[in-house]
Design a protein that fits this description.
Layout (H helix, E strand, L loop, with lengths): L1 H13 L1 H22 L13 H9 L10 E7 L9 H15 L4 E3 L3 H4 L8 E8 L8 H10 L1 H5 L3 E5 L13 H16 L2 H25 L8 H30 L4 H28 L7 H32 L21 H11 L1 H16 L7 E2 L11 H12 L8 E6 L6 H13 L4 E4 L3 E3 L4 E8 L6 H12 L1 H8 L2 E5 L1 H35 L3 H26 L15 E2 L2 H29 L4 H29 L8 H31 L8 H4 L10 H7 L32 H5 L3
Parallel strand pairs: 5-11
Antiparallel strand pairs: 1-3, 1-4, 2-3, 6-9, 6-10, 7-9, 8-9
Helix pairs in contact: 1-2, 1-11, 1-12, 2-9, 2-12, 4-6, 8-9, 8-10, 8-22, 9-10, 9-12, 10-11, 10-12, 10-22, 11-12, 11-21, 13-22, 14-20, 14-23, 19-20, 19-21, 20-21, 20-23, 21-22, 21-23, 22-23
């Protein structure tokens, strides 16, 4: 792989204008396609195969309104006479009439006729039913419905719209610009030059632009969940900057060694580029592995983020070498600090840290493990759910409507359950529906039942059950289970069959399915990690240690998420819209994304340790050397990822915010505690045993020249007839590996230096 990347890097460097033109043309073409064919993303978290979704699909012809979008309209007043005062009732009635006349609205029952008035007489609740599915409701229709309620506002009433049609999800509010700014600062400090620091930012933005434009184009033909573009943006920016940083850092090191710019770029592409390709592959495999859960919207999210990573890798190994060609030796122009010169005997901070860990490996290991276990404790209380109106930012229309309904009618009115009663096998359909209603009304968790809607032709009735608790409460989930447990008894007693559906039941079913998918997904990811790391390092203990460290990072990150979003810690520092269950797909997304990033840091640190050990260093000395060479760039890469992911924490989106927080904490824990502390401590304790590999596997497991060791050995052997010191050309017909022919030897100091 290193040889091919060497040739590719040199070709892109020399044909830089062509490469740049191709990428710009691609960006313009995909952007134009997105403008012409982009579709609207979906906010519906549907999961085929769950009872709620299957039931909804079964009754969509009989009760089509159940599959259509809906909204709550809440009228509230503190005036004399309350909501029933004549002038107030007249204003509400006029608003309801005007809303019903909006094109696309199928019905708005009068709250006075249905009795949907709060016990305190201050609030009236109406249900707006649309004539199309949620994804087909336009912003213009939503705005028209809002405008139609103007008579009520003019009369001094508070009017708020909530429900599915007004829950705004997965919106980017510009916080990523802060992450980019912080990433720029980290790049400038790390690279010391504005030109060098600008290259990773430029390539990352090009990669994200192509990936997002392509995804939005596909949204015109396929259903794309609204969180998919945000996740692609988040992951694409982070890995795009990091991958370019690795290659630029190696390129500048080769320039400092005296190589010509084209040779430096080619070698950087061969060595750091190989690691980028390998690391990118692990991220893509992990994200694509989200399909294991069997949840379509999660599969789309994983594939969208995978696509962004693939583009980021392609940009890093093609466009970046071309830009290095334009920069030439001017890459160090516009310096912000003088480049440090190495003084013999002077140690770096990374080297001092490595020596400290190696001197006290057991202390460092136990301290780190204690901290991570303590942080992971809250994860045992993890509860999953999906966001609704109560998860919206305070002050939004949807949140105002949710809070008014919660206070005035009770939390259960925000969590209605729809029980479908099929009386086809009952002797008396009316008596069967009445019998089901009586049984359900007697359940402890039920506050009330609304009058049934009956389709005489099919013998199907809909009973709306109002729980005593809200959509996020554990008692509501228990009530859904309890109603379903009544199925056999009711079938015997009334001859009717019941099923539970509705938004609340669907969200409960989705969360349960995702929770069940976690163990097999973790097993798949752990297996992938073991195989990839065994290929990379030809070791048993190194992959095992890496997987255990990854699991520690995951549980610690989930513990932090539970503490903040479920328990309410750090309230005030982080503006959590509503404390409650964690978004159901955050854990599985965290595992998929963090796996690739964790393996990235593992590769960049441990491969350096191995190379130094292979070339004669004692195990503990090799650990120090590996930390010394990898600490600076791994630290910078982790800080950039934390900045990009963390920038999404300060938005108000109930889905994006916890995802950004989980990934930021995950990278922080994995990079600085697991990889920079626990890994070198464990490697020091393992000693030579770290590199033991069964002889039975030696012949079976292929060798992966990820670091380009064989390529560099060939390049450092003078080609036949070439001047002394001139690099060999791997494209030449002569065997550049020298007399040995295997290219396995070389200058350990040059070959093993990390990015």
């Amino acid at each position: 792989m290193a040889t091919y990347l060497y040739r590719l890097g040199r070709l892109c460097f020399r044909r830089r204008r062509t490469v740049l033109a191709v990428w710009l043309a691609l960006l313009i073409a995909v952007g134009g396609a997105a403008g012409a064919f982009a579709g609207k993303t979906s906010d519906e978290f549907k999961v085929p195969g769950t009872e709620a979704q299957a039931t909804l699909d079964r009754i969509k012809d009989t009760f089509p309104e159940q599959g259509h979008g809906s909204a709550q309209v809440v009228f509230a007043t503190d005036g004399a006479g309350g909501i029933t005062a004549p002038d107030t009732a007249r204003a509400v009635g006029e608003a309801v009439t005007r809303i019903a006349a909006v094109p696309g609205v199928s019905a708005v029952p009068d709250p006075y006729a249905t009795g949907a008035l709060s016990p305190d007489g201050r609030v009236a609740l109406g249900l707006v039913s649309f004539d199309r599915v949620l994804g087909d409701i336009t912003d213009q229709q939503r705005d028209a419905v809002r405008a139609a309620a103007e008579p009520a506002r003019a009369a001094g009433l508070t009017v708020a719209f909530g429900g599915d049609a007004y829950n705004e999800m997965a919106q980017v509010d510009g916080g990523e610009a802060v992450g980019l700014a912080v990433a720029g600062v980290v790049l400038v400090i790390t690279l010391g030059s504005l030109v060098a620091a600008g290259l990773p930012l430029v390539t990352a933005l090009v990669g994200v632009g192509v990936a997002l434009a392509g995804l939005l184009t596909l949204a015109g033909s396929f259903e794309v969940i609204s969180t998919a573009p945000v996740l692609a943006l988040m992951v694409g920016l982070a890995v795009g900057i990091d991958y370019a940083l690795f290659i630029v850092s190696r390129h500048r090191r080769h320039l400092a060694e005296g190589l010509e710019p084209d040779e430096a770029a080619a070698r950087a592409n061969a060595t750091a580029g190989s690691a980028v390709v390998f690391a990118g592959l692990t991220v893509v495999v992990a994200l694509a592995g989200l399909a294991v859960a069997g949840v379509p919207f999660l599969t789309v999210m994983g594939l969208a983020a995978s696509g962004a990573v693939v583009v980021a890798v392609l940009v890093a190994i093609t466009l970046l070498p071309a830009l290095l060609g334009f920069a030439g030796r001017a890459i160090d122009r516009l310096p912000v600090r003088r480049r440090a010169t190495r003084t013999p005997g002077r140690t770096t901070l990374g080297e001092r840290w490595g020596e400290l860990v190696v001197r006290r490996p057991l202390v460092v290991l136990l301290t780190g493990l204690t901290a991570l276990v303590a942080l992971a404790v809250p994860a045992a209380s993890l509860t999953l759910g999906l966001p609704g109106g109560g998860s919206q930012a305070k002050g939004t229309d949807a949140r105002t409507a949710y809070d008014l309904v919660d206070r005035s009618f009770g939390p259960g009115f925000n969590a209605p359950l729809v029980v479908v009663v099929d009386t086809g096998g009952a002797a008396g359909p009316d008596r069967a529906v009445q019998g089901v209603a009586e049984r359900l009304s007697g359940l402890n968790g039920v506050q009330t039942l609304l009058p049934p809607a009956v389709d005489e032709a099919s013998g199907t009735a809909l009973l709306t059950v109002i729980p005593k608790t809200g959509p996020d409460h554990a008692d509501t989930r228990e009530l859904v289970t309890e109603i379903r447990d009544q199925r056999d008894g009711l079938r015997t007693a009334t001859g009717a069959r019941i099923d539970v559906t509705g938004t609340t039941a669907a969200n409960i079913d989705v969360s349960a399915k995702l929770s069940d998918a976690l163990p097999p997904f973790v097993a798949v990811i752990a297996g992938i990690a073991m195989v990839l790391l065994a290929l990379a390092f030809r070791s048993v203990l190194v992959p095992l240690k890496a997987v255990l460290g990854f699991l520690l990072s995951i549980t610690a990150s989930l513990g932090a998420v539970v503490a903040v979003y479920q328990w309410g810690w750090l309230d005030g520092l982080i503006d959590v819209p509503k404390v409650g269950p964690v978004v159901s797909f955050v854990p599985i997304l965290l595992i998929g994304v963090l796996f690739g990033l964790a393996m990235d840091y593992e590769l960049f640190l441990v491969s350096g340790m191995k190379e130094h050990h292979v070339h004669g260093m004692a195990p503990r000395e090799a650990v120090v050397a590996g930390v010394k060479n990898g600490a600076r760039v791994v630290t910078a890469a982790a800080l950039i990822m934390i900045a990009v992911f963390g920038s999404f924490v300060f938005g108000h989106d109930p889905i994006v915010q916890p995802i950004g927080f989980a990934l930021a904490v995950g990278v922080l824990v994995d990079a600085f505690v697991v990889r920079m502390a626990l890994v070198p401590a464990a490697m020091a304790l393992f000693g030579k045993a770290a590199w033991w590999f069964p002889k039975s596997l030696e012949k079976v497991v292929p060798r992966v020249d990820m670091e380009g060791e064989q390529l560099l050995a060939r390049l450092e052997e003078p080609a036949a007839g070439a001047p002394e010191g001139a690099p060999a050309d791997p494209d030449s017909g002569a065997d550049p590996a020298g007399p040995g022919g295997d290219g396995a030897t070389g200058d350990a100091g040059r070959v093993s230096e990390r990015v």
